[in-house]
Amino acid sequence: xxxxxxxxxxxxxxxxxxxxxxxxxxxxxxxxxxxxxxxxxxxxxxxxxxxxxxxxxxxxxxxxxxxxxxxxxxxxxxxxxxxxxxxxxxxxxxxxxxxxxxxxxxxxxxxxxxxxxxxxxxxxxxxxxxxxxxxxxxxxxxxxxxxxxxxxxxxxxxxxxxxxxxxxxxxxxxxxxxxxxxxxxxxxxxxxxxxxxxxxxxxxxxxxxxxxxxxxxxxxxxxxxxxxxxxxxxxxxxxxxxxxxxxxxxxxxxxxxxxxxxxxxxxxxxxxxxxxxxxxxxxxxxxxxxxxxxxxxxxxxxxxxxxxxxxxxxxxxxxxxxxxxxxxxxxxxxxxxxxxxxxxxxxxxxxxxxxxxxxxxxxxxxxxxxxxxxxxxxxxxxxxxxxxxxxxxxxxxxxxxxxxxxxxxxxxxxxxxxxxxxxxxxxxxxxxxxxxxxxxxxxxxxxxxxxxxxxxxxxxxxxxxxxxxxxxxxxxxxxxxxxxxxxxxxxxxxxxxxxxxxxxxxxxxxxxxxxxxxxxxxxxxxxxxxxxxxxxxxxxxxxxxxxxxxxxxxxxxxxxxxxxxxxxxxxxxxxxxxxxxxxxxxxxxxxxxxxxxxxxxxxxxxxxxxxxxxxxxxxxxxxxxxxxxxxxxxxxxxxxxxxxxxxxxxxxxxxxxxxxxxxxxxxxxxxxxxxxxxxxxxxxxxxxxxxxxxxxxxxxx
Length: 701
Prior knowledge:
By secondary structure, this protein is α/β, with parallel strands linked by helices. It has 27 helices and 19 strands. Residues 5-15 have low confidence and may be disordered.
């Protein structure tokens, strides 16, 4: 089904215009504002092109039409050319220019991100969470916002009687991105309240529409059953306004998605760094000029009764206003370099261990059940929490039964299966967080996380920092990890070093049931993205030597702050005093290899379980190194260029004067995958026997 647009009784050549005159005047004033801003930037290229930017020239009509529909309770995900949307919701040229020049008082990022990349949380304005450079990637977080609203509305948790709408703005070239398809699939599957506004100017950067696609976005979405669609002339404000009003009204009433395909000219440069004359011929430029929205709306103003002198007066006023705004912005203060480290993470409320780790009468529990009980507690106590991923819903409850019974207990509105869409699973949590839903999600195996890395890097990790703390993302991502006996190349991998190279996320790696429960709850309450790595070989304590991963179950109040290591095994005082001890720094399965290996050296080996890999407990590491002056960093990952090697290098640098031996490292062989055959797997990975040989070498150094 599609919304049919009647053929244009709203054309500018027709005097039958049913839009208030004040709205037409406001739109024309803002179009002129955007035009004068573009002219000013080009006339002052030496200053304005210091930082790359795009303008909305040619797209002003559809952008203003969309902006005029947005209410303060709505949410928006614009793309980098959408300055006219920002003007349309009430942002001032001065504010946008502060971002253009990277100034301190840039209201979105304090000089940290590009022009046209807003982060807005301001009374009386629609909410615009941070997003990346928005060439398709924003479709998933935007759809996540709509998904979060859908969830909160379904649970009766949405405040007030308003019907919020999300608008996701995309250039047509970005619709070919696979992540856009993931987003649209979920929008129709769950009937989400979102408007996808596609602005089609027939250009990518230097690639034409014919080079990039076999169909435009309007034709493309016929494959998404349940997606309403509409075409509008995005250069005609009157037609655009009526079309966008119809689209927003449809979503507010029906709570389902719609795509609006708006054709527009591209009158400006792709960006200030890629100028139109470099790749576009005169014919193309002249053809696009024929669809300039400004003359069309000027004509509509006259048809509505405005006199030429009044229009000219408006144009003169805008020109003078933009020039004065530019002068103000030019003289504005630059950011203080001393603030560069601010807002890496939002402060967490969990700063100390609480509850009872071993309450009276407690029974022992395996790690997988400790995780299940932690999630159960969270869902019970926090109605805004939901849990989703591949196979975690329904009757299976996860391939490791780590979510068993949760869907039956809380309903498929809260605990549900997703398609095979790792990018959506990860990236949607950013949108969920923005609207107040708190998502717990699962990637089925660590080897499957790679399609979600783009969202983790571009959307989740940067949001708090680039929005100056306005939009930290609360996201708990569970990832079963590690080898467990014949899992083969696609179910056995370790990925922590890759994750630890992503700044702005936290990485947790428990090694026993008590820590699993306490860290899981701390991760949920942390306002930042947390990846929870859960070793499959420890889930059930079935791997020989891992029996101690099964612990007494902590009480329901137990919580362990992130970033605090734990001494799992102490060395004897006498061994330390005699200089006969050493330290093993490890996590996950490494704890059990070290325990087994240390039996030969009774009382001489301390084992420090990091528990959190980022932020790392550096103080705890240094204190432990000082107790022994000899250290081994043990990992399951291939060793070369790993987190373990990085940590060993840092210890060597900062503790050089107290060390009695080089900081040693040990891990898996440097191979691209873990073989299926269990003997080959064993040959690649560390074992207790191999670690024992390393300890002997270190202790005898």
